[in-house]
Amino acid sequence: MALFEVEALTYYYGGSERPALGGVNLEITEGEFVLLVGGSGCGKSTLLRALSGLVPNFYGGRIGGRVRYRGASKEIGFIFQDPENQLVMTGVEREIAFGLENIGVPPREIKRRIAEVMDYLNISALKSANTFDLSGGQKQMVVLASVMAMQPRVLLLDEPTSQLDPVAAEELLTNVKRMNDDLGLTVVMVEQRLERCFHLADRVLVMNGGHLLNNSRPDDAVIYGLNAGSPFVPPVPRFFAQAGSVKIPLTVAEGRKQIRAMLPDPGAAGIAGHPRPRGTGEWEKVKKSAASPEKLLEIKNLSYTYPDAPEPAVRNISFTLGTGEVAAIIGENGGGKSTLIKNICGLLRPQRGRVKLSGWDIEPQKVHELAGSVGYLAQNPNDYLFNDTVRQEVAFGLKLDHGGPVEQSVDEILAKLRLTHVQDVNPRDLSGGERQRVALASVLVRQPRVLLLDEPTRGLDAHLKTEMGDYLLDLSAAGVAIIIVTHDIEFVAEYARRVLIMFDGEIVADGDKRAVMNNSLYYAPQLNKMFRGFYEGVITFQDALDTLKWCRYEVG
Amino acid sequence: MYSYRDKKLFLQSFHPLTVIAYAGVLVFLALACNHPLLLLALYAVLLVNIKLVDALEAYKTFAPFLLIMMAMIILINPLFSRLGSTILFSLPDLPVLGQIAFTLEALLYGVNMGLRLLVVVTTFFLYNQAINPDRAFALFARLAPRTAMLVALTTRLIPHLANQLKSIKEVQQTRGVAFDQPGLIKKISSYYPLLKVIMLSALENALNIAEAIHSRGYGSGPRSYYGGARMQVRDLLVLAASIAALVLGVTLLALGWAQYRFYPQLDLLFAAPQQVLGLTGLVIAAALPALLNWGWKNWPYLKWRL
Q1: What pLDDT digit, counting tens, does each position of A518-550 carry?
Q2: Residue B175 pLDDT more than 70?
Q3: Mean pLDDT for chain B?
Q4: Which of A51, A93, A132, A370 is the best substitution to test chain B (most B C-beta atoms within 10 A)?
Q5: Which chain B residues are Cβ-neighbours of A443 within 8 angstroms?
Q6: Fewest 10 Å CB contacts: which of A252, A268, A448, A517?
């Protein structure tokens, strides 16, 4: 018998005339792992909240149809996006106790449950820690612990890894899957990192415009996604589906098996580690720059130490960046990536070394004077938004500088970032993806020659990521030099041209992405891992398709 | 910086009730008594305590604010006080205020007032550093659950807001806002957007937090209370010392020995040898936590027993 039964569920948020959910029918059985995917604003979060009862109990609004849950509402645990907004206590132990106190669990039992859940999730060492001192990943683990201590039968997760780095995200997802397997926990999860969780799910639901479009096993969801032109398909299954394979592998391991079956034995044919053929898509994503590249940014022997730190955060960094170049800086957390870009935009000043822009040392210039030439997009777009309309927000930086007519530049940038239709809307009323575009527009409106982006794809769905990547390539074609600091390996593989790896304050690799990412133990995209040992240098999606085409041609 | 950091120190291990009682008695003494030597001694005890909770650095950053407040009191008191007989210098006739004579007595009275204020504010500072907000929450949650929740959320919010303010300021700088411009109006206009961003984000986050605690069963029915801190021997000792200090203080007040007369002329510091004894006892009682801390560190026996 189904644990959840959703019948013809329609829901309007208070004050809205557009339904957030329109006639959703769904059944979820006990112990299932259900993945819910779709673009921002498609209603997936609302559906999750309807399952938990937050819609309509917390949100109000108008509801039609029915959600039936066979059990008590306190058996449903909910984990949200940002751990920062879920922790309420100062200490970890009390944080875990908080939910148990709320439902009246006796103190002795609370003690035992805290011990068990912390051991299970391997976070016992954090028991007396201050929640403020934890990393983002640890915070979300504490949230998971405090929800699991309440011993829910169902766990609902709304993009739980969107604020985490890949290692922490992987750990969280692994734990959720383990609890699904071990404890028979029913899991319904909204998630954007499809490549990490598609294979974990028993069922994938695809939503759009408040409607449930697809409800099937993951491999069928891939076929559906491809036929519908949906971007919500991870690279490995997308590749096989596009290549016309009947069986759709979901993971790298399954993919390798499939490749072995599709291609001739690499050992026997003497093509082991074969260099990848040069296909049509070699520089497919790099649009031709108008002018020939010239040296725009030059960094020489840069070192920076934070005032209260014993060791430098970055040391002896030297590199140059030409016009139109797109470079990605990747590497561990705390490796100095953000420190480096803050040194470039003048927020931090190096104790040693130089930063030169078009041959001029930036040292005598203040941050706000550099603003016109170096653009900086911080992680959280909300940090930008305070004006009453999108138009004012975008014009803000320009008005500081000019005081004169700015309307034309604002119009241009609004049109370019597809914001014209919302120009009179308050930016705080926009969705996450739109807010990100407004923040980017307010940086780009000053026409910087160098653009620095800190984790620009964090929290974006697959569709918005593609959009963001395409903007960046347009900018690059117009001659803007771009540095992206990110953990998003798949994004780097598709859109960057050059990759720098930072470790412990130093640059340990710098070069063309094909050289740096190929066969990297950790920093290789999934398709590269899948082709490892068969063909070298497969980095982008197009590379993989070209390789396959070439093989079929060569081998017959 | 001013918020609680659990450093596993002895003075951070007390029951919240003990800390509240101790701090309450200190504040009462500082407000009721005005004997300069007593105030000085209490201040010294407080400084030692602050050192023992490893918060001297944080206190230093707080000091300029305290000094400005003290200076204002010291300067303002002689302006309005007509008492005192030893005139240091006189100002010419002023409208409204009339003839003003700065007297030695009024000046010292102001210094003493400043000292009193210093003791009170420093006690609150120490309280913040010594009490674990979560344990305080557990205590108050029984008495006033809603208020306790509000206080707990606010406590967590402050360091978070400080971080947020820093990153928003960075964003504004890279958008071209200059924060170091001269002139008050320009300064205010450059900082105004920061406050706006903070406010808007805080409002959005508030809704998310409300949703999160709602989904964790907050307010869903009768609640239980976990791990209210237990009273230990050290708590009983400090509570006893606080009560003793209170009784002694009230007695000294009744005898007039906790007061010092500034006007019309400075009085003798001590009226009788018993007064010295009484005041010393008071200070020793106030210093008990620091003394226990010393014993706890140096004598294993005390470590086990306390």
Answers
A1: 988 888 999 999 999 888 889 999 999 998 888
A2: yes
A3: 87
A4: A132
A5: 174-175
A6: A268
Interface confidence (ipTM) of the complex? 0.85
pLDDT at A83: 92
Both tokens of residue A525?
């995209």
DSSP letters for A295-349: EEEEEEEEEE--TT-SS-SEEEEEEEEETT-EEEEEE-TTSSHHHHHHHHTTSS-
Cβ-based burial of B64 (10 A; exposed 0-12, middle 13-18, buried ≥19): exposed
Average confidence (pLDDT) over A64-80: 93
Q: Which pLDDT score, from 0 to 100, does residue A265 have?
A: 58
Best of B9, B174, B224 to disrupt the A interface (most A CBs within 10 Å) is: B174
Residues contacting residue B4 through CB under 8 Å, at least 6 positions apart? A90, B128, B129, B131, B132, B133, B155
DSSP string, B231-257: P-HHHHHHHHHHHHHHHHHHHHHHHT-
Give B160's contacts (C-beta < 8 A, 6+ positions apart).
A84, A132
| pLDDT greater than 50 at residue A270 | no
What are the pLDDT digits (tens) for B47-94?
Answer: 999 999 999 988 998 888 888 988 888 888 877 777 777 888 877 777
Q: How far apart are CA A381 and CA A548, in angstroms?
A: 40
Structure tokens at A460: 């974006």
CB contact under 8 A, B224 and A93: no
Tell me which chain B residue has its CA closest to the CA of residue A345: B174
Mean per-residue pLDDT for A462-470? 90
Q: How far apart are CA B286 and CA B21, in angstroms?
A: 11
Long-range contact pairs involving B193-202 (C-beta distance under 8 Å, separation at least 24):
B193/A386, B194/B165, B194/B168, B194/B169, B196/A386, B197/A382, B197/A383, B197/A384, B197/A385, B197/A386, B197/B168, B198/B161, B198/B164, B198/B165, B198/B168, B200/A382, B200/A385, B200/A386, B200/A428, B201/A382, B201/A383, B201/B164, B202/B157, B202/B161
**pTM for this model (two decimals):** 0.83
pLDDT of residue A450: 96
Tens digit of each residue's pLDDT (9 = 90 or more) over A146-171: 999 999 999 999 999 988 888 899 99
pLDDT tens digits for A85-123? 999 988 899 999 999 999 999 999 999 999 999 999 999
Residue B225, min C-alpha distance to chain A (Å): 6
Test mutation, A368, A387, A442, chain B, max B CBs within 10 A: A368
A2-228 shares its CATH topology with A290-373+448-504:
yes
Contacts of B213 in chain A (CB under 8 A): 88, 98, 102
Instruction: Give me the residue from B5, B201, B219 closest to A130, CB to CB.
Output: B5
Residue A271 has pLDDT above 70, yes or no: no
B253, A138 contact by CB (below 8 A): no
| Superfamily per CATH, domain A290-373+448-504 | P-loop containing nucleotide triphosphate hydrolases (3.40.50.300)
Domain extents in chain A: 2-228, 234-284+523-556, 290-373+448-504, 387-442
Considering the four listed CATH numbers 3.40.50.300, 3.30.110.40, 3.40.50.150, 1.20.140.10, the one that applies to the domain covering A2-228 is 3.40.50.300
